[in-house]
Structure formats: structure tokens, C-alpha cells
Amino acid sequence: MEWLYLVIGIAVLGVIALVGLVTTRVRGSKRDLPGASTDVLAPPRPQQTPPAPADTTEAPEAPVETPVEPAAPTLDRPEKASSRLVRLRQRLAGSNALGRGLLGLLSRDKLDEDTWEAIEDLLIGADIGVGPTQELVERLRERLRVEGGAADARAVLREELIALVDPTMDRSLQVSGADGAPGVVLVVGVNGTGKTTTVGKIARILVADERSVLLAAADTFRAAAAEQLSTWGERVGVEVVRGPEGGDPASVAFDAVRTGIEDGVDTVVVDTAGRLQNKQGLMDELGKVKRVLEKQLPVTEVLLVLDATTGQNGLIQAKVFAEVVDVTGIVLTKLDGSAKGGIVVAVQRQLGVPVKLVGLGEGPDDLAPFDAAAFVDALLS
Ligand SMILES: Nc1nc2c(ncn2[C@@H]2O[C@H](COP(=O)(O)OP(=O)(O)OP(=O)(O)O)[C@@H](O)[C@H]2O)c(=O)[nH]1
């Protein structure tokens, strides 16, 4: 019996050993299958790329992002006043017909009475005025007679014309107040002479000279004038004080000077209306504007704007304005469109005040400080 138990035990052990061997073989063969996976729906694994070799060069730095500032409005850079008359001298083309005409006559071999008469006609035609014409002709006759053939007609004419225009007059603009207070420039003139345009151009001259400026749109009569002035101001970053259309011009002027004092600007330039029904209305309004301005600060300059193409009419206007306000300087506009440069002499004689600025075109920087010698040189060029 014992041997039977022994045989059964050996047989059981053999079976166990056989089953264990088969299981191990099956597992081993599964592990060896390429791509074997427990889940067939799983997406194929992305192929692993070998790690890049270590880069020994420095990686470029990522650009640093700077915050974008809102674009500042681009402002005009007005031309310096000193270079303007030279640039604009060819604009006096109409007037230099006068210079050429005079030189042609004076260069004749014989200066007879007919020639002197022709010279007089030329001068009067150029609006120099009767008195200054006679004075000039007398001086020329005298000098050419005394100096005789040795005289250089051109040089003599140049000297005498400069003397007539008067280089001794103070033509500087009074744009500064006392003790650091703003200077106040009051601009007057009949409408259409180029007054508003001139105020805009004066602002540019001051800005080019690095002065701070405030404009007062005290021409409340014409709505477009305030708009026009604002456009001039915006181009050079100058503030414009405005009032309601048809409002009191004196109150706009007052507000502007108060703002100018508060802001500490160098100069306040005041535009005024010129379109008034009668002389009394004009007197009342301009007188009031000036009085109201002077409650706060003295007016340092009163500029009268005259259109050079209007000839005698301009002289009559000049007289009326001079009665209303103390004009301290004249701005002659549209000299580019006029053959009558002689008006410079006539108006200075009439008012006894200097031409300080001349308008020689519609461009923003076509307003130049007046200079007697440069003007005469342009006439004779
Ligand atoms: N050719 C030329 N034109 C000029 C000159 N100055 C001004 N003008 C022109 O003259 C016209 C009238 O100018 P404004 O400034 O509007 O005249 P204003 O006197 O202010 O007129 P109101 O505002 O109605 O009183 C405009 O077309 C200007 O461009 C100049 O020197 N030469």
C-alpha cells in the first residue's frame, strides 16, 4: 500500500511541475512581442525623439515687450523768425518792379526833367505817398548832382530808400510783461485784412522762439474765427480761450488773461473783431476790450493789421483805429500780392509807428519781422 501512495504523490508533483512550466513559457512569449499592448484602442505612442545635444551657444534673448504709449499729437515746428524775410524776399516780386524801374531811370545818361517826373510817377504809383516821394526825389537829385559821374546810382538809391523806410525805428515786438507777468498783445484791424491768420502766425513766431503762448478768440462776431484760431493753436500746441458765439469779446479777453496769469504763460495774444457797423461801435468795443484787459495787466503791444493791397483805403482804416487804441506797431499783410511796397513808408508816416511784421503769403510761416535794409535790398534785387 505504501508504494501506491508514493506513486500518486510523485504523479501529482509531476503534473504541478508541468503546469508551472507551460504558464511561464506563455507569459515569456507575450512579453517578447513587438508593440504588445494591453489596450489596442490606445493611440500609438508618439515617437520619442532623442534629446538634443546640449547647445553650447547662448540662446538669443526673447525680445522685451515695451508697453505701447499712445501716439502724441505731432506738432509743427515753426520756422525761426530771423530767417524768414530772406526766404520770402522773392515774394516781393511785384514790388521789385519798382526797384528795377527806378534803377533803369536813374541809370540813364541824362537825368532830365522828364526822367525825374517818371521817377516821381513810379514812386507815387507804388503808394509811397506824395510827401515822401518829393523828399526822396529831392535827395536823389541833390546827391547825384553833387557826386556827379562818380556816383553809383544804385548805391545812392539804396541808401536813400533805407533812410526813407527809417532803420532807426524800434521794430521789436513787446511780448513780455513786467516782473515775469505775461505780455499782452492786442491785434486789431478790419475784417478780411488777415487778422486771425496773423494772430495764428504770431503764435508760431513766439513758439519758434520757445515762448509759451495763449490765444484769445475775442472775435465773437464771426463764429468761424474762433474755429480758425483753434486750428492754428492746435498745430503748435497752443491753447485757445473761446467764448460763446456773439458773446462779449471783452469777457473772452479777460478770461484769457486770467488763464494766462494762472498758467504762467509768456504771452497772451488777443484776436478781435473788425466787422462793425460804424466807427462808434468799433470805438466802444475795442475801447472796452482794452480797458478790461488792463484791469489785470498792461497791454504791451497793440498791432494794427493792414492789407497792403488796399492802398489809400488802408491808410484811412489806420487813422480810425489809431483814434480808438494806441497802435504801437503795424502788420502789413498780403505784401506778396502787391506791387505797392511803398505803403510801408506811407503808413509809418501817417501813424508815426513802425511796420513790425509783413505778411508775404498764405503759408503758416509766411509772416516775417520787418527790416528796412532787407526790404530795400529785396526791392532792388
Ligand atoms: N497772400 C496772402 N494772403 C494772406 C496773408 N495774410 C492773410 N492772408 C489771407 O487773407 C484771408 C483773410 O484772412 P483772415 O485771417 O480770415 O482775415 P480776418 O481779418 O481775420 O477776418 P475776420 O476774422 O473776418 O475779421 C485768408 O485767406 C488768409 O489766408 C498774406 O500775407 N498774404
TrEMBL record:
Residues 43-53 have a biased composition (Pro residues). The keyword Nucleotide-binding applies. GO terms for molecular function: GTP binding; GTPase activity; signal recognition particle binding. This is Signal recognition particle receptor FtsY. Its main location: membrane. The keyword Membrane applies. Belongs to the GTP-binding SRP family. FtsY subfamily. Keywords: Cell membrane, Cytoplasm, GTP-binding, Hydrolase, Membrane, Nucleotide-binding, Receptor, Transmembrane, Transmembrane helix. It is found in: Cell membrane; Cytoplasm. One of its GO terms (biological process) is SRP-dependent cotranslational protein targeting to membrane. GTP binds at residues 189-196, 271-275, 333-336. It comes from Nocardioides faecalis. Its EC number is 3.6.5.4. Part of the signal recognition particle protein translocation system, which is composed of SRP and FtsY. The gene is ftsY. One of its GO terms (cellular component) is cytoplasm.
